[in-house]
Each structure stands twice: as structure tokens, then as C-alpha cells.
Amino acid sequence: MIRVHADDRMSNLMNRPRALERLPWQWLLPSLFLLVGLVYLYAAPNFEASDSAQHIGVIQWIAERGELPVQSPDHAQLFGQEASQPPLYYLLMAAVWNAFDTADFDERYKPSPFTAIGVPARWGNRNLLIYKQVYPPDLSGSSLALYAIRFLSLCMGAGAVAAVYQATRTALPGQPRVALLAASLAAFNPQFLFISASVSNDALINLLAALLAWRMLVMLRDGFDTRRSLLLALLITLAASTKLSGLTVAAVVGLAALWTLAQRRDFRGFALLAGATLALTLIIAGPWYLRNLSLYGELFGTATMLDHFGRREISPWRLLTEEFQGLRVSYWAVFGAFNILAHETFYHIMDLLSLVGAAGLLLCLWRFRRDRPLLASLGFLALLLLLGAVMLFWWTLQTWASTGRLLFPYITSISLLLALGLSAWRFPPLLIAAPLLAFSLAAPFLYIMPNYDHPPPVSELPESAKAANVQWGDLRLSGYELPPPTTVWRAGDSIPVSFYWRAEAQSPLAYALVLSLLGADGAVLSSIETWPGWGTFPHPWMQHHTDYRDDYVMEIPPGAAATSELALEIRWYVFPDGPALDAVQANGERLTALRLPLGSVTS
Predict the structure, then answer these.
(1) Rounded Cα gap, residues 63 and 83, in angstroms
(2) Which pLDDT value is given to residue 77?
(3) How far is it, in rounded angstroms, from Cα 479 to Cα 172?
(4) Which of 14, 345, 463, 507 is buried deepest, with most CB atoms within 10 A?
(5) Are the CB atoms for 146 and 152 separated by under 8 Å?
(6) Could you tell me the CA-to-CA distances from 143 to 14, 54, 138 in Å, in that order?
(7) Rounded distance between C-alpha atoms, residue 242 and residue 422, angstroms
(8) Burial class (CB in 10 A: 0-12, 13-18, 19+), 459
């Protein structure tokens, strides 16, 4: 009897992987992606992704004027370099924009002057805009229109995840676990979730490129077919109408079609695909490219964009040594305006996973060396990734473009090849997918929301706070929390400080806060300029007679000299270029600035 029960348990264990494989992952993974993506939709305010403000500017321009924008430095703030992009995404989203009352857009669009763009090492000031209501999101007017656009973009990301799954099942029909892992590597990539939940034409090109990769693999497997060829032609045309990286994908699909012709000698099928692609491209995408020739004297408009918005010269070696790390980490998780990093451990884990996967891929290629159809499929996926990486490298030599999201049009190649390599070591797919899902779900709470949320109101000062009564205009310092004034610091240390601010009256003026670390001689060691909430909450938005806790981290520069006295200086001035405000103490004494002791710095 005992043996029978043991056999039953063994049978159940063996059947679990099979039951796992029978689940409808082609629907479950895109659905999970959407659910997690809704968290990113909630956590990141509308404008807080790279170039989102400019993408929104293009949409608004088209919706309100009924015409495409023309590249010009005069509109750098509105749509900037995004006027150089093919228009399909913007035309679709302009129709969505017009479905809402967006008359309040100018009132909501309030760029922060203190934002540290592309500097993740700096503390605070990471919000591109200031938002009077951050959480819960304001679902009215133009804000609601933008959330609707972002949800549609998120749905495009879900479609890309589904395409990655189907592409893997096409290339590796007998390996459903590889398909599960490949789609999970795309679906639970925090950066892919973040970008998919933003306003960006990346969402549409990522979908179209993933669909193209899938249908290319079907063509390689089954040959030409009238319906498949027409669909491929349409997808190529739409990709070319969305982003120039769509042309890179189209080029690889064209090479795959030539390979299919060489293998099958189906000249009629090839002619149909080539003719349909040419005809649809001329009809749908052609007018935009001809417009570029007319306006700028060039087919793509990229030289004009570089002239207006950022041409540079950098050697290939410097590019590899100085910017590769940014490209590497931003494929997995760099949020905001390229200024919010995840914990360093996450990047090391993904590096290790990538190296193990690359080694496993070489092993798989050796095992499959006699399977010509499979090697052809993997070869074209690798070629797609290689050509995409080369084009990105070439483009980055001319302008700032070292960002991992620009590799997402090739996410099918990356995810499929990485998953196949990991499968060589017999990793259970859920051993990788489940932790990645958990991290992608936690990331918005750990990294995104803390950088945009307003400082919290407090009913009373905690016991750890020292009471104060110092006033700048209508803004009062009720208390603060500092390290003991006897603390000995070293160069490179970070000093946490907290303040409790209270607005005593309604003011139409926003005061800017300047915090400085001073040495014994009064020399400034480091300084921060911001609004309360580290750039998120101008004081006119505060409720009157309510204390708000405001946390900062002051950094002693690594090369700072020793000093016997370290002080924190607090100053306020009327933004943007108004007068400095005196610090008025409870006894009526007026100071140009308030200084609080922090200890000393040793060498």
C-alpha cells in the first residue's frame, strides 16, 4: 500500500510540468502583462517617460491643427525631435485625443525647472513635470485622454508579448517551455512594461516588429501564401509608417523572403509578396517620405533632426566604454527621464542570466547543427538583432541614443534566443519567470512612485523631530530631524535630513528651496535647488496650517577636504528670479539664511 502511494506521488510530480504546458499561455501571459502594466500606468504620471512630453506634443499638434508638424527648433518645447518620426502612431492617437475635452492641457502642462534628466546618480528632482494630483491619478480632461492613450499603448505591448510567444512556438514547436520563458522575458521586463505604459510610438513599432518576426518565421517554415504575403506586406508598410527602425525589420524580412525563394523556387509567391509590399508602401507610407523630400531635401528627415536637436561626434571606442553600461541597464529597468535606477543587484542577476543564456545558446546551436530549417529561423532572428544593434550603434555615434528601449523592436529575437539558451541548462521556466514577475510588480512601488508622490502631511511632529519656528514669507519651518551635531563624516558620505514645512497663508508665488552643505570657512561643498517634495510639490499647493514631512539626502563630495565644522544652510527665494527671503525667527530676528550644525568632516 505504501508503495502504491509513493508511485502515485511520483506520477503526480511527473504530470505537473505537462499540466503547466497545457495552460493557455498564449492568453495568460498577455493578460498578466496587462495587469502588471496597469500598475505602471498608475505609478508613472503621464509625462514621466523619456520623450513622452514631445510625443504628446505631436499628438496635440495633429489633433488641434489637422496637419503634421514640421521640424523646427522653434517648437523644441512642444514636440522637439519627434516631428521627424513617421506619423502612424500619432495619427491614431490624435483621434483618441479628439474624443476628450482637452481644453485644460495648458493648465496641466507644468514642466519642472529643476529636473535632473539622465542623471540617475543624483538624488531627487526626477519629475519632468509637477502634478497637483499624483495619486490617485486625475481622470478628467486632458489627463484622462492621456491615460486612455497610454492604455491603448499598453494593449499594443500585450500584443507584442503574444507575438513573442507565437514566434517561439513557430520556431520551436516541440518546446512549449521555451515559448513560456521567451514570452515571460518580454512580458515581465520592467523597462518594457514602463515604456509600453507610456505615450510613445515605441509601443506601436514594438507590436508591429514582433508580429513581423512571427510571420517571418511562419514564411520560413511554410513558404509563401497569398493571405500570409498580403499580411506581411501590410505589416511592413505599417512599420515603415511608424518608426524608421521598422525599415530595419523590413530589410530582414526581405532577406528571409529571398531565402524562401531560393529554397522553394516559388517565384509567383515571391512576386506577390514583393509587389504587394511595394504597392502598399507607396500608397500608405510613400506620401510621408515624399513630404520629407519636399520639406528637407532628404528621404528620412534625420539629417534635419540632427541639425536642429543634437548632432555629436564620438569615437566608437568611447561609445562602447562610456555608454554601453547605460544601454545595458536601460534594457531592463531605467525609469523616468532616464534618471531612476533599480537596485544594482537586479542588473547583476540579469547580466548573469544573459551570460548563462548566451553560453547555452552556443550549446543549442551545436546540438541543432543538422536541423537546417531551425538554424535558418534562428539565423534570421539573430540577423535581425545584429542589424538592429548595428543601426542603433551607428545612430548613437551621431546623437544621444544609448537607451535599451530602442532595442525593443527586436525583443522577439532577444527573448527567444535567450530563452532557448537558458533551456539548454534545463532551467524550469517558472524558476526565472516567477521572480521576474514578482520584481516587475514590485518595481513601481519601490522605484517609481517614491519619486513622484507629494510629501505626506503629518498630524503632529514625531518625538525624533526638534521643534522650530522659523518663517520665510508665508512658509514656516515647524521642525526638523538632523543627525547629531557631534557626528564625524567622511568625504562621500550621504546625510539624511528631514523638515516639516507649513504654509500659513495662500500665496500666488512659489518659493524655491536651496539647501547647501558649508565648511568651516563658509565654502559651499554641495548644494540642492528644488521645490518641496524634492521638486514635486510647490508650497502654494499645501493645505494651510498643515505640516508636511520633507526628506532629503545631502551628499558630501568624494573629494571634499576635512573641516572642523559642517553646517546645513537653508535659504528660500521667490521663484524664478525674485528676491531672497529672510529667515525670521520666533524672536523677530531676521537672518539671510538659517544654518544648522551637522558635525565635522574628517579626511
Answers:
(1) 14
(2) 66
(3) 64
(4) 507
(5) no
(6) 51, 16, 6
(7) 33
(8) exposed
Cell numbers describing residue 336 = 523616468
Which grid coordinates belong to 273? Answer: 509578396
Distance between CA atoms of residues 328 and 494, nearest Å: 27
What does the pLDDT read at residue 313? 84
Secondary element (H or E) of residue 379? helix 372-396
CB 548, CB 542: distance < 8 Å:
yes
The amino acid that residue 343 corresponds to is H
Produce one character per residue of 86-124: b if its CB has 16 or more CB atoms within 10 Å, e if not: bbbbbeebbebbeebebeebeebbeebebbbebebeebb
Cell of 544: 494651510
Cell of 552: 532629503
Q: What is the per-residue DSSP string for 507-571?
A: -SSPEEEEEEEE-TTS-EEEEEEE-HHHHT--GGGSPBT-EEEEEEEEE--TTPPPEEEEEEEEE
Q: Can you give the length of the chain in residues?
A: 603
pLDDT (tens digit per residue) in 409-449: 999 999 999 999 999 999 899 999 999 999 999 999 999 99
- What ranges in 123-225 are assigned the alpha helix state H? 141-171, 176-187, 190-196, 202-222
Give residue 246's identity as a one-letter amino acid code.
Answer: G
CA–CA dist 512, 537 (Å, integer): 11
Q: Are strands 594-602 and 488-490 parallel, antiparallel or unpaired?
A: parallel
Place of cell 523630400: 293
C-alpha 179/C-alpha 167 separation (Å) is: 8
pLDDT at 505: 84
Helix (H, G, I), strand (E, B) or coil at 424: coil
Residues 583 and 423: their CA atoms lie apart, in Å, by: 65
**Integer Rg of the chain from CA:** 28
List own/partner pairs for 108-115 with CB under 8 A and 24 or more apart: 108/141, 108/142, 108/143, 109/47, 109/53, 111/53, 111/77, 112/531, 112/535, 113/575, 113/576, 114/512, 114/529, 114/530, 114/531, 114/535, 115/337, 115/339, 115/535
The secondary structure of residue 454, as a DSSP letter, is P
Neighbours of 360 (CB within 10 A): 21
DSSP string for residues in 380-402: HHHHHHHHHHHHHHHHHTTSS--
Q: What are the tens digits of pLDDT across the range 98-136?
A: 999 999 999 889 999 998 887 777 788 899 999 999 999
State mean pLDDT over 337-356.
94
Amino acid at 239: A
Euclidean distance between CA atoms 595 and 404, whole angstroms: 44
